[in-house]
């Protein structure tokens, strides 16, 4: 009976991977390039980006377009010290995005908005599909007009390729308007927003945080590293867990929730994801590319092992999402008690507001 049950699990995994692969071939994309001013006064902005990355990712946990799950790709640039620096190109490797973001340091004091927009438009591999959502967010506090590239030309070039430019001014509305941040957004069909880059991110500890943290660690044990990227990917995963935990329990919880949902993909180094996405066949993986514990297994034992890890991962992910439902209600109630009367927004609030509206216009639905 146990053998028949395991065979069924293997069959489900194989069939599921074929379906996912077929969808993946035509999956819509949401591409987001985040351009951050990392000059001397922007330490708060960088900290907000680190603290809210996983909350931002979780906005897409249930997003679909025409019944299909989109691929989320994120790129990062800094531009506080010209020339602009690409921190990471458009990628769905969210652990890599987190790793590079946590490595960003304050540097310089000269911000050229037009130049960094032009660089991101020209360097990144943007989708040619008009139905995909392609968005730039640029955040900073100096006038939008500075530098060798005219901001108007850069913004017009972006929208001519279907890339929306949203501008986030770190400061007052009056300074943002006079500094042409509002004009830059208008030229590229984007939203203009103002934030307080030094506004503290509310740290609400919830009763569910401890179990979610334990489940996040448990989730890592279901990953099956393979090939040259396996060891590095596994280490990066653990390192980004640690980075999130250094900020607040709530940030770690948001990361765990991201790991429990569809946008967290690691097919490049994890056999479970690779097989489920249909990018790798287990029988084609060389023995030496398997983890040590699998190298001594027979072919059938390997299939059964991967199926067990797949089933356990789904069980843990389901529990994390159950806990998060209760956690979200608790946090919402606590935040009402701490209601901010100033009306000032943070980076994540500005980005999420814009993306919700712009995604809906392209028929991405939650």
Keywords:
disordered N terminus; alpha/beta; 14 helices; Rossmann fold; 366 residues; 2 domains; 6 strands
In short:
The protein has 366 residues and is α/β, with parallel strands linked by helices. It is 52% helix and 12% strand. The protein has 2 domains: 28-202 and 343-361, von Willebrand factor, type A domain (Rossmann fold, 3-Layer(aba) Sandwich), CATH 3.40.50; 204-337, no CATH class.
Kindly describe this structure:
With 366 residues, the chain is of the alpha/beta class. It has helices at residues 2-25, 43-58, 94-102, 113-123, 151-160, 173-178, 181-187, 209-220, 227-247, 249-259, 271-277, 292-295, 299-337, 347-361, and strands at 29-36, 71-78, 85-91, 133-140, 163-170, 192-195. The protein has a six-stranded mixed β-sheet with strand order 3-2-1-4-5-6, sandwiched between helices. The two termini are 40 Å apart.
Low-confidence stretches: 1-24
- Reported CATH architecture of the largest domain: 3-Layer(aba) Sandwich
Q: What radius of gyration results from the CA coordinates? A: 22 Å
Largest sheet: 6 strands, mixed
The proportion of residues forming helix, as a percent range, comes to 40-55%
Coarse structural class: alpha/beta
Overall morphology: globular
């Amino acid at each position: 009976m146990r053998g028949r049950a395991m065979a069924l699990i293997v069959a489900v995994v194989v069939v599921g991977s074929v379906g996912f692969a077929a969808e993946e071939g035509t999956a819509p994309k949401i591409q987001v390039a985040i351009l951050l001013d990392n000059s001397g006064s922007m330490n708060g902005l960088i900290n907000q980006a680190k603290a809210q990355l996983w909350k931002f990712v979780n906005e897409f946990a249930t997003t679909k377009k025409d019944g299909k799950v989109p691929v989320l790709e994120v790129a990062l640039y800094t531009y506080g010290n010209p020339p602009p620096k690409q921190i990471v190109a458009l990628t769905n490797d969210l652990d890599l995005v987190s790793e590079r973001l946590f490595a960003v340091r304050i540097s310089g004091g000269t911000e050229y908005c037009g130049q960094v927009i032009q660089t991101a438009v020209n360097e990144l591999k943007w989708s040619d599909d008009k139905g995909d959502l392609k968005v730039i967010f640029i955040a900073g506090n100096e006038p939008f007009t500075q530098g060798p590239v005219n901001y108007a030309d850069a913004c017009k070039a972006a929208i001519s390729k279907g890339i929306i430019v949203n501008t986030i001014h770190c400061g007052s509305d009056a300074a943002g308007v006079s500094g042409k941040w509002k004009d830059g957004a208008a030229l590229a069909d984007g939203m203009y927003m103002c934030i307080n880059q030094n506004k503290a991110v509310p740290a609400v500890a919830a009763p569910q945080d401890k179990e979610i943290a334990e489940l996040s660690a448990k989730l890592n044990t279901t990953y099956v590293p393979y090939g040259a990227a396996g060891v590095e990917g596994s280490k990066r995963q653990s390192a980004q867990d640690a980075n999130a935990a250094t900020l607040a329990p709530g940030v770690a919880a948001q990361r765990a929730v991201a790991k429990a949902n569809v946008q967290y993909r690691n097919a490049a180094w994890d056999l479970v994801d690779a097989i489920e996405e249909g990018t790798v066949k287990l029988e084609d993986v060389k023995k030496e590319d398997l983890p040590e514990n699998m190298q001594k297994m027979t072919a059938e034992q390997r299939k059964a092992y991967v199926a067990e890890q797949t089933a356990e991962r789904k069980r843990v992910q389901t529990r994390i999402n159950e806990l998060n439902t209760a956690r979200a209600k608790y946090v919402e109630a606590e935040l009402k008690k701490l209601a901010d009367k100033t009306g000032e927004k943070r980076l994540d609030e500005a980005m999420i507001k814009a993306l919700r509206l712009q995604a809906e216009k392209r028929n991405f639905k939650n």
